[in-house]
């Protein structure tokens, strides 16, 4: 999880704790606690604003929960294998086989070095994340378009023309590696030389 995601989740959790703490204060008499919590509206200066803040925060979290519930209900189901019906039986293809199949396609391209493929499989879709180093002078956009067409065509051929499984191909860290400056290489070479003793 990235820093922005952690920050966003932390803010949401703090706000949710703020709302839930107000519920605790309101119904603390049912908990038989040895101490009494001060009500939010009893705080000086900000107490009169807190009920309105709690109201809008509650509506926000209700809407957020509804959205998450809809996402959970209708989110595509992940799977680790496909079962494809053929004329002479059925064919089972797992995630590792898809990754190796696509990796072999990419390795045949001489313009790509150190390729890597990660697959996520759903009931009606295959998501592929492809990374690798391109040779200097390679047109990145044209290479991506070429690979998308070739991989999509070969996966469709593998799964069968009657299959309605779609391919979603994405590229990550798929670029020409930057060259190290000659000055840096000279510095490294000079450091590696031993002093000459006369």
What does the model show?
With 198 residues, this protein is of the alpha+beta class. It folds into 2 domains: 3-74, no CATH class; 78-175, Cation efflux protein, cytoplasmic domain (Alpha-Beta Plaits, 2-Layer Sandwich), CATH 3.30.70.1350. It has 5 helices and 6 strands. A 4-stranded mixed sheet has the order 1-4-5-6, covered by helices on one side. It has a two-stranded antiparallel ribbon with strand order 2-3. Strand 2 and strand 3 (89-94) form a beta hairpin. Helix 1 (3-26) packs across helix 2. The protein is elongated, with a radius of gyration of 29 Å. The model is unreliable at 181-190 (pLDDT under 50).
Query: What is the radius of gyration computed over CA atoms, rounded to a whole number of angstroms?
Result: 29 Å
Number of domains: 2
CATH superfamily of the largest domain: Cation efflux protein, cytoplasmic domain
CATH architect. name of the largest domain:
2-Layer Sandwich
Strand content: 15-25%
Shape: elongated
Overall structural class, as computed from helix and strand content, comes to alpha+beta
Sheet of most strands: 4 strands, mixed
Protein name: Alkaline shock response membrane anchor protein AmaP
Keywords: Membrane, Transmembrane, Transmembrane helix
Question: What features would you highlight for this structure?
Answer:
alpha+beta; Alpha-Beta Plaits; four-stranded mixed sheet; two-stranded antiparallel ribbon; 47% helix; elongated
Brief overview:
The protein has 198 residues and is an alpha+beta fold. The chain has helices spanning 3-26, 50-74, 95-107, 140-159, 182-192, and strands spanning 78-79, 81-86, 89-94, 112-122, 125-134, 166-175.
């Amino acid at each position: 999880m990235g820093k922005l995601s952690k920050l966003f989740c932390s803010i949401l959790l703090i706000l949710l704790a703020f709302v839930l703490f107000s519920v605790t204060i309101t119904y603390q008499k049912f908990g038989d606690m040895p101490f009494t919590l001060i009500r939010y509206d009893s705080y000086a200066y900000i107490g009169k604003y807190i009920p309105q803040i709690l109201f809008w925060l509650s509506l926000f979290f209700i809407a957020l929960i509804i959205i998450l519930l809809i996402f959970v209900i209708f989110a595509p189901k992940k799977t680790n294998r496909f079962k494809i019906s053929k004329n002479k039986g059925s064919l089972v293809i797992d995630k590792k086989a898809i990754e190796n199949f696509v990796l072999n396609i990419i390795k045949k391209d001489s313009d790509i070095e150190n390729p890597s493929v990660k697959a996520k499989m759903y009931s009606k879709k295959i998501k592929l994340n492809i990374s690798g180093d391109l040779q200097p002078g390679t047109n990145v956009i044209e290479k991506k378009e070429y690979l998308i067409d070739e991989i999509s065509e070969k996966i469709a051929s593998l799964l069968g023309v009657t299959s309605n499984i779609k391919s979603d191909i994405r590229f990550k860290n798929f670029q020409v590696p930057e060259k190290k400056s000659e000055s840096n290489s000279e510095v490294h070479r000079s450091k590696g030389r031993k002093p000459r003793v006369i």
